[in-house]
Amino acid sequence: MFDHDFERTKEFLRGKLPDYLRSRGINPDESFACLNPQHPDHRQSMNYNPHTHCVQCYGCGANYDIFALIGFDYGLSDFNAQYSKACELFLGQSPQPLHERTINFENAGAATFGLRKEPNFELKRDSYDSRSEPQAPAPSFSPLYPPRPQQNELSDNIKRPLNTPANYSSERDDGQYAANLPPAGGAVFGLTGNHYRQSNVSFISSSNERSYPDLTEPKYNYADYLRQAAAKVGLTDFFTRHGLSNEVITRLHLGYDESYAAGADAHTGEQILWRAVIFPYSDYGYTVYNCDSAAPDKLRRRGNVSIFNESALQHDGAVFVCEQELDALSLETLNYHAVALSTPAAARNLLELCSKSVGGSKRIFYICIQEDGAGAECVKTLCAGLYSLKQPFKKIDAAFPYQSLNQALMNARDSLSWRLSHLEEMLTFSTTPVLQTHEQYRFIDDATALSRLHLSAHLYALCAPCTVLRRTLRLIMQERLCRLITVTTAAAWQFICHDLTNDDATPTPLPFEAYPNARAVLLSAPEERVALEEIRYAWSALRLQHEGSFTLAIDLTVFAQTQHAALIAKLQSLSAELGCGLLLLCPPQDQELCSSLCLQTIQVAQSDDGNELIFKSNSLNGRPLNFTRYAGL
Fold first, then answer.
1. Greatest CA separation for the chain
2. pLDDT band with cut points at 50, 70 and 90 for residue 513
3. pLDDT tens across 544-590, in order?
4. Residue 551, beta-bridge partner list
């Protein structure tokens, strides 16, 4: 942005502090908990001051600008490194090389406890002369790290820590000298057994350590402490009680500290001790969780914590992105790759790794972060970044109906495992939208429509007692306006044909059929499977004989009541398959079931004198379709 104007760029970046606070889930317009690691009081005692572009605590007097907070979050004690990281976050580019710009250390990287004022230093800008005595760099202050080792002019260009004997030699350094150095500021409360390591011995992979051009930042190495905590993990059942497997506990070096020093009480000044479990991120950072479920204060983060279980990003296929370490560990227990983001700012680190990875297209991210509070900003950042990187991703709620994946693991392990194994199948599930249909449905709305039975390719139902249904069929058959084929048993067919006489027929030697429009398909057995096969066979045979103008009436009164529900549902599928309308003859008990599965359900009753049949029905929009029919005797 201002490549050749360091002061303007620095002021621009200091003005970005509200955006940086929001990325951490903090609302700069309201009070929030103090960010000072030496101030364990978790009341809302810190505010953002828009006039100074700093955050200030009225409890401990801490005063930080954006560079100091970036130093806390990324483990950077030198202002040059803090400035470079700020440029990377907000300008998207590395700053101008140090030898090409001038630096004013007067207000750079302000990070103060109380009302401490920085001394004024003036950096000489004389040209370099190899014959001149080397100038000591301007001192800088950080509450997290001690002063960096300086080069002594009497040591023949060999760097060694401050306050070391003159006969110190780096070749003989086996780490014992480093063990005598004081702890690294407020970043290591209660870790007196640790030391500021200069050796290359590693306990946990430090692959998530970021490197910046021309800047070397010393970080506090917690490998010894993490190794001791991992050795004591068997003293607690916290992890196994939360459903984690022993393989995951061992592989990810989870630990336990029965007397973790979490700071000092703000009122009494006494040391606060926790029974705590340890989640290592790398040799240079970890998270502490208080095992006391009733304690309001549960979390501490030490050192450089960003992406938990970053090694999962080295695998192809599905990678789950969680908000809590326990959620990621729960998925690892079920043999899935998962990472956890300690802060919303860690989302940018994840995107940075994705941009540098080779073959990232073989990986798909499943974002399992709740979109509320700080999680909403984290999900927004991840989705925008992964989309720009053309990296496949999907947002899911795999823990439903529980609040977290770990709760789902503890309470419904089999259900969670099944859901994850069928994840892609469930994510491709789709629902049917509103259908824009222009089909003209035909309804039985008068006596003529009942006699003709021009039906749509759906189910129709007549619901009435058996005697009334048979009387209705006889009326339709006597009209001779349609060809009606009834599927029933032999005995029921005799009852239907009981009142059909041949009185009008004149004697003739020729064969004569009084009701050629009425036929029956007699079932061999009133069973669901047999009936469906015989109905399908009869339909196919009649169509093969070019018999297309007929209506099938299915007499359900001959079946057991327990078979009606399954039979009506299968007849609905058969009607759609054959593309024909079916008229169901049902007892009154099936009226509600028929109303849900049939296009039209008609309730039939007869008058008190028995001379009329009364038909009551409705259209799809609820309009009444009622009519009567003279039946006679």
1. 144
2. confident
3. 887 768 899 999 999 999 999 999 999 999 999 988 999 999 999 99
4. 484
Q: How far apart are CA 307 and CA 272, in angstroms?
A: 27
Q: Which amino acid is at 100?
A: E
* Residue 171 structure tokens: 């070749």
Read off the amino acid at residue 218: P
CA distance 302 to 80: 22
Report d(CA 171, CA 493) in Å as an integer: 109
Tokens of 93: 């580019």
Say which amino acid occupies 93.
Q
Phi, psi (deg, nearest 5) at residue 19? -65, -40
Nearest to 145 by CA among 192, 183, 107: 183
Model pLDDT for residues 272-299, shown as the tens digit of each residue: 899 999 999 999 999 999 999 888 888 8
**End-to-end distance of the chain based on CA atoms, in angstroms?**
100
Dist CA 134 CA 77 (whole Å):
23
User: How confident is the model over 103-109, as a mean pLDDT?
Assistant: 42
The residue among 591, 596, 600 whose CA lies nearest residue 442 is 600
Please, what sign has the CA dihedral across residues 21, 23, 25, 28? positive
How many other CB atoms sit within 10 Å of the CB of residue 541? 11
